[in-house]
Task: inverse folding
């Protein structure tokens, strides 16, 4: 076969064209529906079925399961989705991605949509220059759609025509008749192709084209699709490499789910393939091949009849075949896929041609009936695209129906194999309040109080990281502590926002005077906790600037800073203790004593600092950082006292 390096590069270029078109269309749709998409995902509940439908809907929109799963991984990394919720969305994404195969099968092979590509680009191109971002994004969608099907047309033309190159079929035959081993080989091939092109949709398109051109038989193409289901998980796993353990678990759950599906399908593979093959044979409208049976009393002379009918059919003759095994019952088949590409109404043309020839032969003609005979994908290449789409969709739907009930079990498995490694793997996740229906006002306040207790613990962890910055001499350790502080500070910001929204929603109901007072006190508490988080972050930033400007503290400044850190730490510990106990048992006595102690220490250290600056015992810029530190720590102590005071007022 004359298949040169240039031909191979043309194939790769066509694949690149297809992937680029898909990317442009996907990016455009994500821009159009981006905010809505994020709201849908972030509002997920623990209802796994709703998660499946959400994943299906999002993937159907963006036409990329990889885009959905990477988005899910990022949401899990940010704590907006739990592991159980993310698995449901990923399952839905697996079903949603099958829509691509149907689009390619229906439009890419049955309709000459590439002929419409340039007009579509002409319509979408001016939209790119619109001042409105939504219009511009729709322009990208249209252009991406056109490029995608242009790429598909190039792909169809770049794959070798094996009907005139049987040696390639002979080469592939060594790998297609080894039973289960062949299935495993082509599963591996599908996985590798998907990993290389980084798109299951592109790999699916390539598989459809290879089958349509006769490169590989239907069963092996189905095996490749199973492999592509495994290969597509690599994208999410790559995205999770730099994420926390929760995101890694979501990516591994995707891999585990798809691998399990392939395992059970290998067992049922022969039965599944045969059922699809028979279904296509019984449904000519699905296979794209229609059939009619002509009955007559006296059989015509075969050779003359064939020649005359072929002449009468003209261009349509290329798409008609007939079976002479029963001369008095002539089974005629029409390849509707290829005929539609040439705009030929094959049924009416062939019916007239056969009718005329039967009449010319002086036979009893016109007694024909529509026969339910479609094309078998294992025999007719024209039936393969729809058959593969059926296989792909059925396989993924059955896999979801089998495993959706075991989502918590899958979550436990990946959690066991990927245990958390410490503080770096903590994420923002509300434990006691959610976005679903609220209970009574009293119950809502109790749930909010539990969440506020957790808020206090996170704030205490944030404060605990700040003094360590003072002693971190290694750059790597210092940067790690800074990242930890920033992470916890972001969590405090979001916790305040979510708890405040929850309390505001609870306030919409009729509240007693006592309940209203408690809600006001809780809003005050979360505001103080968030402010403590902000102050801790400011101290961390000041320490980073001090380090960059080489404004080092003398041993005396370090010792006095530690003294202030310790005093405020005791106030934070008391605050956390008060948040975790019965509010009615909280006393302000100890909190007041600590507040007075911190204020006195602040005044003492500030006076000593002014004297030391006058004496020139340390540089002025070091003294400025020291003074800011003492001032911020005293403010943290004030807000810790305010939290305890609000607790007493609530009780």
Result:
């Amino acid at each position: 076969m004359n298949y040169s390096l240039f031909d191979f590069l043309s194939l790769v270029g066509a694949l690149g064209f297809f992937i680029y078109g898909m990317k442009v269309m996907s990016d455009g749709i994500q821009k159009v529906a981006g905010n809505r998409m994020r709201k849908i995902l972030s509002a997920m509940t623990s209802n796994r079925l709703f998660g499946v439908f959400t994943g299906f809907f999002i993937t159907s929109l963006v036409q990329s399961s990889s885009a959905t799963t990477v988005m899910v991984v990022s949401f899990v990394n940010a704590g907006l989705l739990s592991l159980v919720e993310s698995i449901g969305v990923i399952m839905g994404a697996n079903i949603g991605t099958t829509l691509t195969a149907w689009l390619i099968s229906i439009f890419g092979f049955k309709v000459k949509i590439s002929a419409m590509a340039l007009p579509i680009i002409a319509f979408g191109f001016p939209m790119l220059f619109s001042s409105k971002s939504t219009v511009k994004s729709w322009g990208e969608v249209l252009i991406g759609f056109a490029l995608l099907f242009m790429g598909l047309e190039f792909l169809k033309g770049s794959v070798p025509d094996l009907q005139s190159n049987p040696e390639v079929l002979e080469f592939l035959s060594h790998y297609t008749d080894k039973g289960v081993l062949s299935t495993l080989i082509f599963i591996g091939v599908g996985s590798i192709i998907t990993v290389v092109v980084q798109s299951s949709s592109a790999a699916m398109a390539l598989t459809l084209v290879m089958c349509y051109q006769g490169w590989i038989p239907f069963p092996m193409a189905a095996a490749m699709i199973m492999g592509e289901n495994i290969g597509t998980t690599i994208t999410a796993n790559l995205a999770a490499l730099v994420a926390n353990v929760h995101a890694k678990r979501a990516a591994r759950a995707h891999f585990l789910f798809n691998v399990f599906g392939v395992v059970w399908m290998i067992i049922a593979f022969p039965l599944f393939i045969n059922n699809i093959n028979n279904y296509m044979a019984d449904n000519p409208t699905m296979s794209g091949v229609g059939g009619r049976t002509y009955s007559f009393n006296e059989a015509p002379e075969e050779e003359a009849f064939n020649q005359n009918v072929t002449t009468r059919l003209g261009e349509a003759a290329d798409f008609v075949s007939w079976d002479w095994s029963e001369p008095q019952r002539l089974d005629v088949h029409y390849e509707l896929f290829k005929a539609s590409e040439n705009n030929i109404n094959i049924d009416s043309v062939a019916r007239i041609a056969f009718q005329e020839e039967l009449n010319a032969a002086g036979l009893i003609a016109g007694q024909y009936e529509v026969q339910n005979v479609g094309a078998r994908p294992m025999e007719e290449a024209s039936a393969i695209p729809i058959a593969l789409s059926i296989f792909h969709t059925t396989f993924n739907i059955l896999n979801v129906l089998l495993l959706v009930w075991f989502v918590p079990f899958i979550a436990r498995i990946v959690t066991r194999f990927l245990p958390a490694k410490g503080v770096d793997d903590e994420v923002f996740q509300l434990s006691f309040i959610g976005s679903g229906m609220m209970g009574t006002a009293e119950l809502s306040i109790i749930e909010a109080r539990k969440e506020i207790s957790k808020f206090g613990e996170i704030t205490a962890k944030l404060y605990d990281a700040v003094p360590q910055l003072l002693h971190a001499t290694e750059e790597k350790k210092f940067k790690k502590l800074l990242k930890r502080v920033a992470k916890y500070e972001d969590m405090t910001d979001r916790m305040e926002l979510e708890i405040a929204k929850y309390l505001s929603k609870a306030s919409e109901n009729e509240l007693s005077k006592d309940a209203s007072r408690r809600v006001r006190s809780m809003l005050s508490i979360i505001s103080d906790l968030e402010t403590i988080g902000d102050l801790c972050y400011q101290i961390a930033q000041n320490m980073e600037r001090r380090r960059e400007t080489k404004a080092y503290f003398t041993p005396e400044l370090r010792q006095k800073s530690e003294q202030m850190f310790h005093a405020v730490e005791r106030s934070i510990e008391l605050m956390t203790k008060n948040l975790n106990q019965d509010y009615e048992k909280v006393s302000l006595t100890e909190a007041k004593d600590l507040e007075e102690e911190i204020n006195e220490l602040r005044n003492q250290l500030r006076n000593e600092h002014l004297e030391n600056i006058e004496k020139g015992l340390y540089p002025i810029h070091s003294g400025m950082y020291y003074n800011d530190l003492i001032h911020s720590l005293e403010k943290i102590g004030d807000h810790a006292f305010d939290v305890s005071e609000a607790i007493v007022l609530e009780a």
Q: What stands out?
A: Residues 5-42 form the longest helix (38 residues).
